[in-house]
Amino acid sequence: MENNSRKEKAIPGDKLAVVEEFEPGEGTYEVNGEIRASILGKINIDNKNKLITIETHVKKNDMPKPNDKVEGIIENIIGPGAILKIIKVNEKENFEFLSGVIEIRRSRGQRESGVDVTDRVRATVFSVVDGNIYLNIREQNDGVVSSKCIECCSQVVKVDRGVKCVECGLERFKKLALDFK
């Protein structure tokens, strides 16, 4: 890929390059051989060292820390993870452009991830490395806080192992928070 064909700015989940071209640096992560943005910011390409990074205006001390609770909207599902646009940190509104990667562990035979794009989710920060925020939804009150049907965008109700659409009847496995609405 030529430099002039690359974008200047990235949003979380944007494909930036492949590992054959560059190494992932700060503000990026690698999944299935692709380097993707984990934060919003300016794309920096170091052709000499074959490194791609994202420069952001968010200060390190503004970043959530391990064991902090975050809440946000699922923006993308990628491989074994999901990108969460963070809108609250420890119950306080977040006005920065932060995103985190939720680690999703599927049980044997489980096809669904437990979250869908547009779900509002509460998660726990388990690690912050080079500006990348890693989350999980394993704690009892973590998980989907609110959701809509992925087929028809109608209201869903809680059922045994997830949610069911009141309009089309679609059932989806979800890892629900205790206060799911």
Task: List the defining traits of the structure above.
mainly beta, OB fold (Dihydrolipoamide Acetyltransferase, E2P), about 0% helix, five-stranded mixed β-barrel, 2 domains, about 180 residues, single chain, about 50% strand, four-stranded mixed sheet
Explain the overall architecture.
This protein is an all-beta fold and 181 residues long. The protein folds into two domains: 3-55, Beta Barrel (OB fold (Dihydrolipoamide Acetyltransferase, E2P)); 60-141, OB fold (Dihydrolipoamide Acetyltransferase, E2P). The chain is 0% helix and 49% strand. Strand 11 and strand 12 form a beta hairpin. It is globular and about 55 Å long. The mean pLDDT is 86.
Blueprint (SSEs and pairs):
Elements lengths: L8 E2 L4 E4 L4 E2 L3 E4 L2 E4 L3 E6 L4 E5 L13 E10 L2 E9 L2 E12 L16 E10 L2 E5 L6 E4 L9 E4 L2 E4 L5 E3 L8
Parallel strand pairs: 3-7, 10-12
Antiparallel strand pairs: 1-6, 2-5, 4-5, 6-7, 8-9, 8-11, 9-10, 11-12, 11-13, 14-15, 15-16
What is the molecular shape? globular
- Which percent range fits the helix content? under 10%
Task: Say which CATH homologous superfamily of the largest domain is assigned.
Answer: Nucleic acid-binding proteins
Report the radius of gyration as a whole number of Å: 17 Å
The CATH architecture of the largest domain can be given as: Beta Barrel
Total DSSP helices: 0
Calculate the terminal CA-CA distance, rounded to whole Å.
46 Å
Tally the structural domains.
2
Structural class: mainly beta
Contiguous uncertain segments of 5+ residues: none
Proportion of strand residues: over 45%
Strand order of the largest sheet: 8-9-10-12-11
Q: What is the count of β-strands?
A: 16
Strand count, sense and closure of the main sheet? 5 strands, mixed, barrel
Order of helices and strands: EEEEEEEEEEEEEEEE
Q: Do you know the CATH topology of the largest domain?
A: OB fold (Dihydrolipoamide Acetyltransferase, E2P)
The chain-level mean pLDDT equals 86
CATH class of the largest domain: Mainly Beta
